[in-house]
TrEMBL record, chain A:
Gene Ontology molecular functions: 4 iron, 4 sulfur cluster binding; FMN binding; metal ion binding; NADH dehydrogenase (ubiquinone) activity
Domain NADH-ubiquinone oxidoreductase 51kDa subunit iron-sulphur binding span(s) in chain numbering: 447-492
Reported cofactor(s): [4Fe-4S] cluster; FMN
The protein, known as: NADH-quinone oxidoreductase subunit F
Record-linked InterPro entries: NADH-UbQ_OxRdtase_51kDa_CS, Nuo51_FMN-bd, Nuo51_FMN-bd_sf, Nuop51_4Fe4S-bd, Nuop51_4Fe4S-bd_sf, Thioredoxin-like_sf
Species: Thiocapsa rosea
Tagged with keyword Acyltransferase: no
Pfam families cross-referenced by the UniProt entry: 2Fe-2S_thioredx, Complex1_51K, NADH_4Fe-4S
SUPFAM superfamilies reported in the protein's UniProt record: Nqo1 FMN-binding domain-like, Nqo1 middle domain-like, Nqo1C-terminal domain-like, Thioredoxin-like
Family: Belongs to the complex I 51 kDa subunit family.
Annotated keywords: 4Fe-4S, Iron, Iron-sulfur, Metal-binding
UniProtKB/TrEMBL annotation, chain B:
Positions of the 4Fe-4S His(Cys)3-ligated-type domain: 89-128
PANTHER family referenced in this protein's UniProt entry, alphabetically: HYDROGENASE SUBUNIT, PHOTOSYSTEM I IRON-SULFUR CENTER-RELATED
Example GO biological process: ATP synthesis coupled electron transport
Protein name per UniProt: NADH-quinone oxidoreductase subunit G
């Protein structure tokens, strides 16, 4: 298959819906489903029936504004989501009104203005199809240009060409570490081996993060396409998606996508009539946070206890069953198809000097617009929280935003103007992480926040290395006593020392970064710790 | 004339450890080079003959030009490395780690049959731990005396997994394993059933010999008798490897 054949196929798939003038799209991602999107979809389908063949109802992926769900959008032919009408907090009872208004003015009481900054200020690359295509529809994905990057790579590019584009793009790993993707890929590509593996890390488990889940639920083919391109570039013929079992909807959609891609010849033997073959398998994680750490993840795939091992050797050298292995996060793979399609230079023109492209963030906590956003790297925190996020509800004051989950830290109000990228966040003692942002207002206690994250790390520690296993437990007990105003100044000093030891001596990233929430809250909110001292 | 014998593809490197110039094969780890040269490096999970585990973190060393500490047991030597094994910072970290171990379970030397032959006790003396600053957790686990020859006391276990590894890698039985997460971790026999009911245990006693503390001991031994012999391990490991 070449690009022309694929373009013909896409044209055929578009022709199926050629007579459709309007699409009624119902968000069927996990968040909207939990607030009742399924009955809305049923009511709309039942209400429209066969009466209006020019109007199609379909379930789509995440539209972003989860706090206003269930969301329904009405798109006119060739209209993008941004230009369409979006309805918020829709119930099944509203279906009749929506159907009645299709030919006239929109239903004002349900309308969610699309010119508000939440929609207007975003730039979508990873999420370009989210909320527009039906994630279960292979034809829908191909109709919007899906798999063209893979076919282009296979038919017109050598693996070295693909590596060059990815390197030129400046893409850095979206799982949190920010390691240059091109460098990682070329390292694995250079390893001489009879067998290589690609792994997609979808074991997202940070409190407050749901980016990977939303991407998998909204556009699973995009992730598969990215993995296939990666496998071609490094010379692998076997790939795994390690996804946590707590994401049943994502798993289901991924399974459907893999099955359909395979049936259509985009996975399996001799993809696109080339010599390249790829098998993709799903591996379910049983819900251990440590299994997001790459060496623990690989142990889990091998059927062993999910525990990290010392690095080096890095997975690029000795990974799954000792073979060179490429591990990237869901969002990293979701960036690949556009990079191959538009070129590395295009991607590198977005973002900041050292952090290219866009980043998907999950806004959670006390913020008006909770949900999923995608903005260029370098957007200021103030823009994200006050403009796109709509600020703090209820007239309360902003206090801090927690980024990077249990490995990250809290950023106070005085640093809100910082441009968000990998390096600037590090200077503030926190990190990008996978992109969770938990916003806190003035009523939050920072000691409680630190205690919460320490409890998370303590219970999620695999128990292998001593500092992480027992250090986090001791730190949690001190924080617990602090929160109850029972701790002494000596214990506070001990807490600081334990932070240093656990950070410096733990075996894997989970332990090494576990003290970050404590250290960063101590750095900016030391007075709260002092005020909680029992002997103060 | 026959061609010259092919040289094995392993190079020799030179490095300095605590200011001493040393040579080593590049496939050796820092701890192996240190032990060869009588440079003391504390460790509890590392044991020659078993696979590297890297969990006790006591063997961490400082490498010039790198901020992050390296575990001597799992880091291979490279040309020109400059290593410090006993800086003030390392001593402080090691002390804290040993304290954390003491506080985690109920290690009371005076009523332990391994008193005087215990690696944890020895480590505490070496690291200068004369008191424990963190509170004892006072968790209590039942003692498993169901085996006719041996006894398991979780309260003295430091989860070094030497027993797990020796049973799997040397004896080939894989009776031992670890269950649970975090501080709830504990070693188990078979599917967490009493040791005496284990179908796989060969009663070889290797686990008891490699256990660094009094967690695994012979039944009915006195303090003076419970001396552990680990010299069999490198010899057995080499023979197993050669087969």
């Amino acid at each position: 298959m070449n690009l022309d054949d694929l373009a013909d196929l896409a044209e055929q798939y578009r022709a199926i819906d050629a007579n459709v003038e309007r699409e009624v799209r119902v968000c069927m991602a996990a968040s909207c489903q939990s607030s009742g999107a399924a009955p809305v979809l049923d009511a709309l389908v039942a209400g429209l029936g066969e009466s209006q063949p020019a109007c199609k109802v379909k379930g789509v992926g995440c539209m972003g504004l989860c706090s206003a769900g269930p969301l329904v959008s009405i798109a006119h032919r060739d209209g993008s989501l941004e230009e369409s009408t979006i309805y918020r907090d829709v119930t099944a009872d509203d279906a009749a009104d929506i159907i009645a208004s299709l030919d006239g003015p929109p239903v004002e009481r349900l309308r969610c203005p699309t010119d508000q900054p939440f929609f207007a200020r975003q730039q979508k690359i990873v999420l370009e199809n989210a909320g527009i295509i039906d994630p279960d529809s292979f034809k829908g994905y191909v109709a919007v240009g899906g798999y063209s990057a893979l076919i282009r790579a296979l038919s017109e590019m050598t693996p070295a060409d693909v590596l060059r584009e990815v390197t030129d793009s400046g893409l850095r790993g979206r799982g949190g570490g920010g390691y240059p993707t091109g460098l990682k890929w070329s390292t694995v590509a250079k390893m001489p081996a009879t067998q290589k593996y690609v792994i997609c890390n979808a074991d997202e488990g940070d409190p407050g993060a749901f980016m990977d889940r939303a991407i998998l639920e909204s556009d699973p083919h995009r992730v598969i396409e990215g993995m296939a391109i990666a496998a071609y570039a490094i010379g692998a013929n076997k790939a795994y998606v390690y996804v946590r079992a707590e994401y049943p909807l994502a798993v289901e959609r991924l399974q459907t996508a893999i099955r359909k891609a395979k049936r259509s010849g985009f996975l399996g033997n001799k993809i696109g009539d080339t010599q390249f073959s790829l098998e993709v398998e799903i591996r379910l994680g049983a819900g251990a946070f440590v299994c997001g750490e790459e060496t623990a993840l690989m142990a889990s795939i091998e059927g062993l206890r999910g525990q990290p091992r010392p690095r080096p050797p890095y997975p690029a050298e000795s990974g799954l069953w000792g073979y060179p292995t490429l591990i990237n996060n869901v969002e990293t793979f979701a960036n690949i198809a556009p990079i191959v399609r538009e070129g590395g230079e295009w991607f590198a023109s977005i973002g900041t000097e050292r952090s290219k492209g866009t980043k998907v963030f999950a806004l959670a906590g006390t913020i008006t617009n909770t949900g999923l956003i995608e903005v260029p790297m370098g957007t200021s925190l103030r823009d994200i929280i006050e403009v796109i996020g709509g600020g703090i509800p209820g007239g309360k004051a902003f206090k801090a935003v927690q980024t990077g989950g249990p490995s990250g830290g809290c950023i106070p109000a005085q640093h809100l103007d910082i441009a968000v990228d990998y390096d600037s966040l590090k200077t503030l003692g926190t990190m990008m992480g996978s992109g969770g942002m938990i916003v806190m207002d003035e009523t939050s206690s920072m000691v409680d926040v630190a205690r919460y994250f320490m409890e998370f790390c303590m219970t999620e520690s695999c128990g292998k290395c001593v500092p992480c296993r027992t250090g986090t437990q001791q730190m949690h007990s001190i924080l617990d006593r602090l929160a109850k105003s029972q701790a002494s100044r000596a214990e506070l000093a001990l807490l600081e020392e334990l932070c240093e030891v656990v950070q410096a001596t733990s075996l894997c990233g989970l332990g090494q970064t576990a003290p970050n929430p404590v250290l960063s809250t101590m750095r900016y909110f030391r007075d709260e710790y002092e005020a909680k001292l029992g002997d103060a | 004339m026959p061609p010259p014998a092919k040289q094995p593809n392993v190079r020799v490197v030179t490095l300095t450890i605590d200011g001493r110039d040393l040579s080593a094969r590049e496939d050796e780890t820092i701890i192996e080079v240190c032990r060869e040269n009588q440079i003391p490096i504390p460790s509890l999970c590392y044991l020659e003959g078993l696979s590297v585990w890297g969990a006790c973190r006591l063997c961490l060393v400082e490498l010039a030009g790198q901020g992050r500490l390296l575990a001597a047991c799992s880091t291979r030597v490279t040309e020109g490395m400059q290593i410090q094994t006993n800086t003030e910072k390392l001593q402080r970290y090691r002390r804290t780690i040993v304290e954390l171990l003491f506080a985690e379970r109920n290690h009371v030397c005076s009523v332990c049959v391994s008193n005087g032959h215990c690696e944890l006790q020895y480590m505490a003396q070496k690291c200068g731990v004369d008191h424990v600053r963190v509170p004892y957790r006072q968790a209590s686990y039942p003692v498993d005396s169901s085996h006719e020859m041996f006894r398991l006391d979780h309260d003295r276990c430091i989860l070094c997994t030497r027993c797990v590894r020796v049973c799997d890698e040397i004896e080939g039985a894989h009776t031992w394993d670890v269950m649970g997460r975090g501080t709830e971790c504990r070693v188990i026999t078979d599917m967490a059933q009493p040791w005496g009911e284990s179908d796989t245990c060969t009663s070889c006693g290797k686990c008891v010999q490699v256990c660094p503390t009094g967690a695994l001991v012979k039944q009915g031994t006195s303090v003076g008798e419970m001396v552990k012999d680990q010299h069999f391990l490198p010899i057995l490991a080499r023979r197993r490897h050669a087969q």
